[in-house]
Amino acid sequence: MHYIVLDLEWNQSPRGKAGKRTGMPFEIIEIGAVKLDGEMRTVEVFNEVIKPAVYRQLHYKTKEILHMDIQELEKARKFQDVIGDFFKWCGDDYIMCTWGSMDLTELQRNLAFFKVENPMGKPLLYYDVQKLFSLLYEDGKSRRSLKDAVEYLEIEEDIPFHRAFDDTLYTVKIMQRMDLDAVRKYVSVDYFRLPDKKEEEIYIVFGRYAKYVSRVFATREKAMADKGAVSTKCYRCGKALRKRIRWFPVNAKTYLCLAYCPEHGYMKGKLRLKKAEAGGVFVVKTLKLISESDAEAVQMKKLEMSKKRKESKASSPASDSPEPQFLKASSPLRADAQLQSSLPLK
Length: 346
What we know:
The chain is an alpha+beta fold. The protein is 29% helix and 25% strand.
């Protein structure tokens, strides 16, 4: 298998939102890629600019960052021809590697807009090198810019940043410094093309946590009523778990819960509702085994959100709806403690 290290540059409407085309917020104007073998050695390179078909003038930020002009692009080939050659160049056995998640999203948007067949796998699993860098060198949550990562690893900055092929070369140098075997299992899931039906839903177990990606639902209410979306199962032993703290919102799109496995301990659930590209919503749920102190933090977060909800209700017209009962803040977290919630459960 080869690693295709990819970076894209794109243009947008020079008139801002007023000139933005539906389905094409960013038009790709440059592709840079390096093909690596299993030993992180360069096999081949791909580098080509693309003639714009939608935004025929460059946005001022594009000109400022990329230092290119429209005359250079007008001499280039169109997207359909370049991308066809690119995928032939990739071969049949490869995994995409990008710095961050945006490149693959915009690549697939451009494919859809220009009605070019998408040859990448579904689900599309790839390596987000930015995330892998954080897992290896930081806390796994922070995200450094490419330039900051290059400086952190003390890689010589012998070429400019912000052109597709140059940024690809820097990403390759970072990957060549990494202990990829230590983070190889942490693939990322692209959300542009989602499961069409329940049987296609994605469930991946990593070393530290498990991730579930649902099919698309018409509304958030239908998503939260789906048993598969809101269930909790221990990813170590496979047992279905009862919730000690049921799903509760921490903002408009994110919910938390706490479950307990008699064999492996407390498990924190995090559920995010996301908008699908073609409309509707889907669920990204992660489950992670945690310590008792982390479990107590989930309890305190629940109490905090309950307090905010009560304060909000107190400042609004009276409601006939009964208030849910919660644990007192001073109560120790017990394995049999259950909080009430209006959200559906398995």
